[in-house]
Design a protein that fits this description.
Strand content: under 5%
Distance between the termini: 23 Å
Structural class: mainly alpha
CATH architecture: Up-down Bundle
Helix content: over 70%
Shape: globular
Order of helices and strands: HHHHHHHHHHHHHH
CATH superfamily: Cytochrome c oxidase-like, subunit I domain
CATH topology: Cytochrome C Oxidase, Chain A
Radius of gyration: 20 Å
Length: about 400
């Protein structure tokens, strides 16, 4: 395994200059935190009928697209641009090229607001350019290093790019029913990145964070099946309209990832917020596929499974990973503040409100969505407030990055 290298701080650096483009995690974790707050706030206004999502996306389509291809894509960019430097020993883009990539991401968020004056084709091209640009930026160090396991991230990004293209093709009137397939491709490619990255760093972080001398359990067949089950589930969902097969695939996926998570577990994680948030995030992935099984059998609404995967799995995991990685790569102590521990807890509570309570209190469904969204906003507001100075200031130990 090739974990993200988290270095302990060594010396204080009095340098006060701002370095928001010194390494990939800095601008993209910052943008992801701000986007998480802004996009969810706008969505609650749209859901409440106070405002609309503009003339390019429909209200529902805008929410799904932006949470995947804006928020999650920014987090993925920050992860991979940072990790690739560690894996390969080759510097990934910094400075002006990194700023340009961040500007393309930002333009993809802003141009749809001016859909009355900006040609829709331009909106689509700019938005799709981000993932393509990210793939190209990562291709140079990953291909030069000839590390096959890491080169595999490039086709994942290309599939995610293709999913975004499918969304825009329907919005442009070129295809009739490609949006759902495109969003599913985007969601499951993000999940696949999280599954691969999680397998590399969650057990590593757990062992290092607890220093208990107990190693995580790994089974080679589970490690091989973990990403494969995600791929097969997506293919089944896209191309085979057989509910029994989908239920079978959901069962297998839940079992494989449940066993994987159980192997990483140690009792001591509950003392360390930076650890339990990652384990809970991965646990939501397992729960999502259990709900997919129940959905395929007609027992629960599929939207519960979808939000367990997105708000729970992707949301909780990415918040925990951003919090941990940003501390390590800024040369700061690997300890979450009490405020961040509350942010982790509130986000998980929000997922419970969104996923489990509607089944118990269906008459309160609309209000529960508003409460869940508000807890999301509070959680990421805390992250943005605490981590903005960390992300824009130099490393505390004086090292580059």
């Amino acid at each position: 395994m090739q974990p993200l290298n988290i270095q302990e701080p060594s010396v204080n650096n009095p340098n006060k200059k701002l370095v928001p483009f010194a390494l990939g995690f800095r601008p993209f974790f910052l943008l992801a935190g701000i986007a998480a707050v802004a996009l969810m706030t706008q969505w609650l206004f749209v859901y409440s009928g106070i405002s609309n999502a503009g003339n390019y996306y429909s209200s529902i389509g805008w929410h799904g697209h932006e949470m995947v291809f804006a928020y999650a894509a920014a987090v993925v960019a920050g992860f991979l641009l940072t990790a690739a430097r560690n894996w390969t020993g080759i510097q990934t883009i910094t400075g002006a090229p990194l700023a340009l990539l961040a500007a393309i991401w930002l333009a993809g968020r802003l141009l749809p607001l001016f859909a009355d004056t900006v040609p829709h084709l331009i909106i689509a091209i700019v938005d799709c350019s981000f993932l393509l640009g990210l793939t190209i930026a990562l291709a140079f160090p990953l291909i030069r290093s000839k590390q096959v396991n890491n080169i595999a991230f490039l086709p994942l990004l290309l599939v995610m790019f293709a999913g975004n293209v499918l969304v825009h093709l329907q919005l442009l009137g070129i295809m009739e029913t490609s949006t759902q397939a495109g969003e599913n491709m985007g969601i499951y490619m993000v999940v696949l990145v999280m599954v691969i990255m999680g397998g590399r760093v969650i057990p590593f972080f757990t062992e290092r964070g607890l220093d208990s001398g107990i190693n995580s359990k790994h089974w080679q067949w589970i490690e091989r099946l973990a990403p494969l089950t995600i791929i097969l589930y997506l293919l089944t969902q896209l191309f085979i309209s057989n509910t029994l097969l989908l239920a079978l695939m959901a069962t297998v996926t839940a079992v494989v990832h449940g066993v994987r998570l159980a192997g990483w577990y140690q009792h001591g994680i509950w003392r360390v917020p930076l650890l339990w948030v990652l384990h809970l995030g991965y646990g939501w992935l397992v729960i999502s596929f259990i709900l997919e099984l129940l959905s395929a059998l007609g027992l629960v609404d599929n939207m519960l499974a979808l939000h367990a995967l997105t708000a729970g799995g992707i949301g909780v995991l990415t918040l925990g990973m951003m919090a941990r990685v940003a501390l390590g790569h800024s040369g700061r102590p690997l300890v979450a503040s009490k405020a961040m521990a509350w942010a982790f807890a509130l986000l998980n509570l929000g997922v419970v409100v969104r996923i489990l309570l509607p089944a118990l209190f269906p008459a309160w469904h609309s209000w529960l969505i508003l409460v869940s969204g508000s807890l999301w906003i509070i959680s990421f507001s805390i992250f943005s407030f605490i981590y903005t100075p960390i992300l824009i200031k130099p490393r505390a130990d004086g090292q580059p990055g």
